[in-house]
Amino acid sequence: MIHKKTYYSRELEFEGRTLLLEGPISGKKIHEYDFHEGLNAFRIPEEQKKALIGIADLPEGRVNVVVDENTIVGYVTFVYPDTLERWSEANLDNLIELGAIEVAREYRGAKLGSNLLRFSMLDDAMEDYIIITTEYYWHWDLKGTGLSVWEYRDMMEKMMNAGGLEYMATDDPEISSHPANCLMVRIGKRVDNESILRFDNVRLSNRYLY
């Protein structure tokens, strides 16, 4: 599969400032930007910036960002599932994972997460992919937001819905380990039936045991 990357950009007004949504951007461009110190949900900002550069330079990797002047204040990544995850067992070159989405806390009032996901789906190439995301409650910023597990789950589901991702059942043990965890999926308009079937066989690999 040829991973076509077409650059897009949009502007968004927030508290008297103009933010730039753009992507997919290159690792070189990420390197040239500053990286907001509040983007530390997964690792320290310096290490997360390096991780984004690595993803952006992969053939299938996509990094879309929100930029305030010269500083990245939010991002979303799309990449092949890790080879240790069950989703890679489908062996599909048109299955990608929304690996991470993060927005610096002071910018969350702009609903940048939802805006980033809507922006990401402007790219017609996304219609060639099955896009998945796995949500685990232990990754959520419950303390910082003051939300309960179920309030946060509802917020995350609505945000993913903005990008066209919908809840799908799975018997994956890690997701099934807590009822707040979930799998969300967007199937592009041009995805063939064989790919969908292979994905479903991984999504519900034990369904014939029930």
Automatic annotation (TrEMBL):
Q: Where is the N-acetyltransferase domain?
A: 51-120
Q: Does the keyword Plastid apply?
A: no
Magnesium as a keyword of this entry, yes or no, is no
SUPFAM superfamilies membership: Acyl-CoA N-acyltransferases (Nat) (SSF55729)
Supply the EC number(s).
2.3.1.-
Q: Which keywords appear in this protein's UniProt record, sorted alphabetically?
A: Acyltransferase, Transferase
| Identification of the protein by name | GNAT family N-acetyltransferase
State the species of origin. Aliibacillus thermotolerans
